[in-house]
């Protein structure tokens, strides 16, 4: 049994998959299997994979059913009891799997292991800004409150910087194949509702926002973020501890607001209004009402002025994060 099974979904990522695979083969942990799940590419991607002669790499075919189905096929084919995920346009630094395995050894109770990451877009690279809920560098540990951490900075869990025990993936049914957007966030949230999440602030992965053919760049309407539905079912089913409920609802609000902005980009202010209806939040109310303002303007208004809208979204979000951090500091000083 290999120490880690690496699952890489592949669909029209020919210019990127070579570098992605080389970053896996350069790991300090060599006891790995690499499962590339081909999803019906029409470019040179599959041929690039075949050009690698390393016996640890194998390619399976899942048909053109989307990234979630591809990842689930990879999970089913995995030999290891720990599955790491990597998108075909991202990459790892050499010690990524070493850090992941170290986390697992120290925190065997966790249902998910993640590391810090950088975000690269064109010539610009920045380190993901993680919440104070996460142990400060160079420490690692269990996130005190995953859902609060997820609204106080960049996402604490990024798909290409995460590994999950296979039994947890099987228990929770893997990725939701009915969703094309947010299905990874949905799985991390479902895991966090049941298990601790372990994270190291060591920067070991690179998220390439400038890559071609990214699903999150699609401008298509979304009726409801998939995790919003998941959280509602969990609350109605009595599966959420009372101490977690308020922070979970804030996180749900953040997903609803994000989805509303995506629907504005898609030219569907009616769906944006539906996303915000019943969206209750104490921390993100400025963002909510900013989105509502755009949702009641003519359908083309947001797309015509989108750059300014996104600047306001970013500035408002960062202002709210800084406010939360200042409040937390005052609380500790008091």
From TrEMBL:
<dbReference type="InterPro" id="IPR001173">
    <property type="entry name" value="Glyco_trans_2-like"/>
</dbReference>
<feature type="domain" description="Glycosyltransferase 2-like">
    <location>
        <begin position="5"/>
        <end position="129"/>
    </location>
</feature>
<dbReference type="GO" id="GO:0016757">
    <property type="term" value="F:glycosyltransferase activity"/>
</dbReference>
<keyword id="KW-0328">Glycosyltransferase</keyword>
<dbReference type="Pfam" id="PF00535">
    <property type="entry name" value="Glycos_transf_2"/>
</dbReference>
<dbReference type="InterPro" id="IPR050834">
    <property type="entry name" value="Glycosyltransf_2"/>
</dbReference>
<protein>
    <submittedName>
        <fullName>Glycosyl transferase family 2</fullName>
    </submittedName>
</protein>
<dbReference type="InterPro" id="IPR029044">
    <property type="entry name" value="Nucleotide-diphossugar_trans"/>
</dbReference>
<comment type="similarity">
    <text>Belongs to the glycosyltransferase 2 family.</text>
</comment>
<keyword id="KW-0808">Transferase</keyword>
């Amino acid at each position: 049994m290999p120490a880690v099974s690496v699952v890489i979904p592949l669909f029209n990522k020919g210019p990127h998959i070579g570098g992605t695979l080389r970053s896996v083969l350069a790991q300090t942990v060599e006891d790995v299997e690499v499962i590339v799940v081909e999803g019906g590419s029409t470019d040179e991607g599959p041929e690039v994979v075949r050009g690698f002669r390393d016996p640890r790499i194998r390619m399976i075919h899942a048909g053109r059913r989307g990234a979630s189905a591809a990842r689930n096929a990879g999970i089913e084919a995995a030999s290891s009891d720990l599955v790491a995920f990597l998108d075909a346009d991202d990459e790892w630094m050499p010690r990524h799997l070493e850090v992941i395995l170290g986390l697992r050894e120290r925190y065997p109770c966790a249902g998910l292991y993640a590391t810090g990451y950088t975000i690269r877009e064109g010539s610009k690279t920045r380190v993901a800004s993680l919440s104070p809920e996460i142990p400060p560098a160079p420490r690692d540990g269990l996130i005190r409150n995953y859902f609060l951490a997820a609204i106080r900075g960049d996402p604490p869990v990024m798909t290409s910087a995460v590994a999950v025990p296979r039994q947890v993936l099987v228990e929770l049914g893997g990725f939701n194949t009915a969703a094309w957007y947010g299905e990874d966030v949905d799985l991390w949230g479902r895991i966090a509702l049941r298990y601790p999440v372990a994270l190291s602030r060591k920067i070991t992965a690179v998220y390439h926002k400038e890559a071609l053919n990214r699903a999150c760049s699609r401008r298509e309407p979304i009726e409801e973020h998939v995790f919003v539905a998941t959280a509602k079912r969990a609350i109605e089913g009595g599966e959420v501890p009372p101490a977690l409920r308020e922070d979970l609802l804030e996180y749900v609000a953040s997903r609803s607001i994000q989805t509303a902005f995506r629907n504005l980009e898609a030219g569907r202010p009616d769906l944006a209004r539906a996303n915000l209806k019943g969206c209750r939040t104490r921390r993100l109310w400025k963002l909510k009402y900013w989105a509502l303002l755009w949702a009641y303007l003519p359908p083309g208004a947001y797309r015509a002025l989108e750059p300014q809208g996104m600047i306001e979204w970013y500035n408002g979000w960062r202002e709210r994060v800084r406010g939360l951090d200042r409040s937390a500091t005052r609380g500790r000083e008091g």
